[in-house]
Write a structure and sequence with these properties.
- The chain is mostly helical.
- It has one domain: Tetracycline Repressor, domain 2 (Orthogonal Bundle).
- The chain has ten helices and no strands.
- It comes from Limobrevibacterium gyesilva.
Protein backbone atom coordinates (compact mmCIF):
# COMPACT_ATOMS: atom_id res chain seq x y z
CA UNK A 1 0.00 0.00 0.00
CA UNK A 2 2.87 2.36 0.82
CA UNK A 3 4.43 1.78 -2.61
CA UNK A 4 1.15 2.51 -4.42
CA UNK A 5 0.66 5.69 -2.46
CA UNK A 6 4.17 6.88 -3.25
CA UNK A 7 3.69 6.06 -6.92
CA UNK A 8 0.44 8.04 -6.99
CA UNK A 9 2.09 11.05 -5.41
CA UNK A 10 5.02 10.85 -7.82
CA UNK A 11 2.72 10.62 -10.84
CA UNK A 12 0.00 13.05 -9.81
CA UNK A 13 1.65 15.59 -7.56
CA UNK A 14 5.02 16.12 -9.19
CA UNK A 15 6.92 15.61 -5.98
CA UNK A 16 10.34 17.18 -5.73
CA UNK A 17 13.30 14.81 -5.91
CA UNK A 18 15.09 16.21 -2.87
CA UNK A 19 14.85 14.30 0.41
CA UNK A 20 12.18 15.50 2.79
CA UNK A 21 12.55 16.18 6.47
CA UNK A 22 9.14 14.77 7.38
CA UNK A 23 7.09 11.61 6.99
CA UNK A 24 4.81 12.13 4.00
CA UNK A 25 2.31 9.49 5.11
CA UNK A 26 2.11 10.96 8.61
CA UNK A 27 1.58 14.41 7.15
CA UNK A 28 -1.20 13.08 4.94
CA UNK A 29 -2.82 11.46 7.95
CA UNK A 30 -2.88 14.87 9.61
CA UNK A 31 -4.55 16.37 6.54
CA UNK A 32 -7.07 13.51 6.48
CA UNK A 33 -8.10 14.31 10.05
CA UNK A 34 -8.79 17.93 9.13
CA UNK A 35 -10.64 17.15 5.91
CA UNK A 36 -12.75 14.48 7.62
CA UNK A 37 -13.96 16.93 10.23
CA UNK A 38 -14.20 20.14 8.21
CA UNK A 39 -14.46 19.12 4.54
CA UNK A 40 -12.50 20.81 1.78
CA UNK A 41 -14.08 24.23 2.03
CA UNK A 42 -13.97 24.32 5.81
CA UNK A 43 -10.30 23.38 6.07
CA UNK A 44 -7.98 26.39 6.18
CA UNK A 45 -4.32 26.28 5.21
CA UNK A 46 -3.38 27.00 8.82
CA UNK A 47 -5.49 24.09 10.07
CA UNK A 48 -3.75 21.82 7.60
CA UNK A 49 -0.15 22.82 8.32
CA UNK A 50 -0.80 22.65 12.06
CA UNK A 51 -2.24 19.14 11.78
CA UNK A 52 0.41 17.97 9.32
CA UNK A 53 3.30 19.38 11.33
CA UNK A 54 4.90 21.04 8.31
CA UNK A 55 5.34 24.53 6.92
CA UNK A 56 3.17 26.00 4.22
CA UNK A 57 6.11 25.93 1.83
CA UNK A 58 6.62 22.21 2.47
CA UNK A 59 2.93 21.62 1.87
CA UNK A 60 3.05 23.33 -1.52
CA UNK A 61 6.43 21.86 -2.50
CA UNK A 62 5.35 18.32 -1.67
CA UNK A 63 1.64 18.13 -2.37
CA UNK A 64 0.97 21.04 -4.69
CA UNK A 65 -2.06 23.14 -3.87
CA UNK A 66 -4.85 22.49 -1.37
CA UNK A 67 -7.00 20.67 -3.93
CA UNK A 68 -4.28 18.21 -4.88
CA UNK A 69 -3.59 17.63 -1.19
CA UNK A 70 -7.30 16.88 -0.74
CA UNK A 71 -7.27 14.36 -3.60
CA UNK A 72 -4.22 12.67 -2.08
CA UNK A 73 -5.94 12.57 1.31
CA UNK A 74 -9.11 11.07 -0.18
CA UNK A 75 -7.07 8.41 -1.94
CA UNK A 76 -5.06 7.44 1.13
CA UNK A 77 -8.18 7.39 3.30
CA UNK A 78 -10.06 5.32 0.71
CA UNK A 79 -7.25 2.80 0.46
CA UNK A 80 -7.24 2.36 4.22
CA UNK A 81 -11.01 1.93 4.34
CA UNK A 82 -10.95 -0.61 1.51
CA UNK A 83 -8.22 -2.58 3.27
CA UNK A 84 -10.28 -2.66 6.48
CA UNK A 85 -13.39 -3.76 4.57
CA UNK A 86 -11.44 -6.50 2.79
CA UNK A 87 -10.07 -7.80 6.09
CA UNK A 88 -13.58 -7.94 7.55
CA UNK A 89 -14.99 -9.65 4.47
CA UNK A 90 -12.32 -12.35 4.71
CA UNK A 91 -13.03 -13.01 8.38
CA UNK A 92 -15.31 -15.82 9.52
CA UNK A 93 -15.65 -19.30 8.15
CA UNK A 94 -18.52 -18.39 5.82
CA UNK A 95 -19.06 -15.45 3.48
CA UNK A 96 -22.15 -14.22 5.33
CA UNK A 97 -20.04 -13.93 8.47
CA UNK A 98 -17.56 -11.76 6.62
CA UNK A 99 -20.35 -9.52 5.33
CA UNK A 100 -21.72 -9.23 8.85
CA UNK A 101 -18.25 -8.36 10.16
CA UNK A 102 -17.96 -5.57 7.58
CA UNK A 103 -21.31 -4.12 8.64
CA UNK A 104 -20.40 -4.41 12.32
CA UNK A 105 -17.16 -2.54 11.69
CA UNK A 106 -19.14 0.27 10.08
CA UNK A 107 -21.45 0.41 13.11
CA UNK A 108 -18.47 0.62 15.46
CA UNK A 109 -16.93 3.56 13.56
CA UNK A 110 -20.11 5.35 12.44
CA UNK A 111 -19.67 8.16 14.94
CA UNK A 112 -16.46 9.19 13.18
CA UNK A 113 -16.56 11.36 10.05
CA UNK A 114 -16.03 9.49 6.79
CA UNK A 115 -13.99 11.31 4.16
CA UNK A 116 -15.45 9.17 1.40
CA UNK A 117 -19.04 10.07 2.26
CA UNK A 118 -18.03 13.67 2.97
CA UNK A 119 -16.34 14.09 -0.40
CA UNK A 120 -19.41 12.72 -2.17
CA UNK A 121 -21.70 15.08 -0.27
CA UNK A 122 -19.43 18.06 -0.93
CA UNK A 123 -18.61 17.48 -4.60
CA UNK A 124 -20.72 14.64 -6.00
CA UNK A 125 -19.28 13.95 -9.46
CA UNK A 126 -18.58 17.61 -10.26
CA UNK A 127 -14.79 17.22 -10.10
CA UNK A 128 -13.43 14.69 -12.63
CA UNK A 129 -10.01 14.51 -10.99
CA UNK A 130 -11.58 13.55 -7.67
CA UNK A 131 -13.82 11.04 -9.44
CA UNK A 132 -10.69 9.49 -10.97
CA UNK A 133 -9.28 9.00 -7.48
CA UNK A 134 -12.45 7.44 -6.08
CA UNK A 135 -13.63 5.32 -9.01
CA UNK A 136 -11.02 2.53 -8.82
CA UNK A 137 -11.43 2.28 -5.05
CA UNK A 138 -15.21 2.03 -5.36
CA UNK A 139 -14.91 -0.51 -8.15
CA UNK A 140 -12.50 -2.70 -6.19
CA UNK A 141 -14.72 -2.63 -3.09
CA UNK A 142 -17.82 -3.43 -5.13
CA UNK A 143 -16.05 -6.38 -6.76
CA UNK A 144 -14.86 -7.71 -3.40
CA UNK A 145 -18.34 -7.52 -1.88
CA UNK A 146 -19.93 -9.10 -4.96
CA UNK A 147 -17.43 -11.95 -4.75
CA UNK A 148 -18.43 -12.63 -1.16
CA UNK A 149 -22.10 -12.55 -2.13
CA UNK A 150 -21.33 -15.20 -4.75
CA UNK A 151 -19.66 -17.24 -2.03
CA UNK A 152 -22.80 -16.78 0.08
CA UNK A 153 -24.92 -18.02 -2.81
CA UNK A 154 -22.72 -21.08 -3.10
CA UNK A 155 -22.96 -21.67 0.64
CA UNK A 156 -26.73 -21.26 0.57
CA UNK A 157 -26.58 -18.44 3.14
CA UNK A 158 -28.18 -15.73 0.98
CA UNK A 159 -31.32 -15.75 -1.15
CA UNK A 160 -30.78 -17.71 -4.34
CA UNK A 161 -32.27 -15.00 -6.57
CA UNK A 162 -29.89 -12.24 -5.47
CA UNK A 163 -27.76 -10.56 -8.11
CA UNK A 164 -24.23 -10.21 -6.65
CA UNK A 165 -23.45 -6.84 -8.22
CA UNK A 166 -26.82 -5.31 -7.31
CA UNK A 167 -26.44 -6.70 -3.79
CA UNK A 168 -23.00 -5.12 -3.51
CA UNK A 169 -24.51 -1.77 -4.50
CA UNK A 170 -27.21 -2.27 -1.88
CA UNK A 171 -24.66 -3.01 0.84
CA UNK A 172 -22.49 -0.03 -0.08
CA UNK A 173 -25.52 2.27 -0.02
CA UNK A 174 -26.47 0.97 3.42
CA UNK A 175 -22.91 1.41 4.68
CA UNK A 176 -23.12 5.08 3.68
CA UNK A 177 -26.53 5.39 5.32
CA UNK A 178 -25.30 3.90 8.59
CA UNK A 179 -22.39 6.31 8.64
CA UNK A 180 -24.63 9.30 8.02
CA UNK A 181 -26.98 8.12 10.76
CA UNK A 182 -24.06 7.70 13.14
CA UNK A 183 -22.77 11.19 12.48
CA UNK A 184 -26.31 12.44 12.93
CA UNK A 185 -26.38 11.13 16.48
CA UNK A 186 -27.98 7.68 16.18
CA UNK A 187 -26.90 5.51 19.10
CA UNK A 188 -25.19 2.13 18.85
CA UNK A 189 -28.43 0.20 19.32
CA UNK A 190 -30.12 2.01 16.43
CA UNK A 191 -27.09 1.54 14.19
CA UNK A 192 -26.91 -2.15 15.06
CA UNK A 193 -30.56 -2.55 14.10
CA UNK A 194 -29.84 -0.93 10.73
CA UNK A 195 -26.97 -3.35 10.14
CA UNK A 196 -29.12 -6.31 11.16
CA UNK A 197 -31.93 -5.28 8.84
CA UNK A 198 -29.42 -4.84 6.01
CA UNK A 199 -28.10 -8.34 6.58
CA UNK A 200 -31.62 -9.77 6.88
CA UNK A 201 -32.48 -8.39 3.44
CA UNK A 202 -29.92 -10.76 1.94
CA UNK A 203 -31.68 -13.90 3.19
Amino acid sequence: MGFLERSFLNDQMGLMARPREFDTDAALDGAIAVFREHGFEGASAQMLVDAMGISRQSLYDTFGDKWRLYCSAVRRYGMGECAAHFEALRSGLRAIEGIAAMLNRVVETADQPCLGVGSTWEFGVSRPDLAEVKAPLARTLREAIAARVRDGLRDGDVASDLDPEATADFLIANISGIRVAGRGGADRAALTRLAEMTLRALR
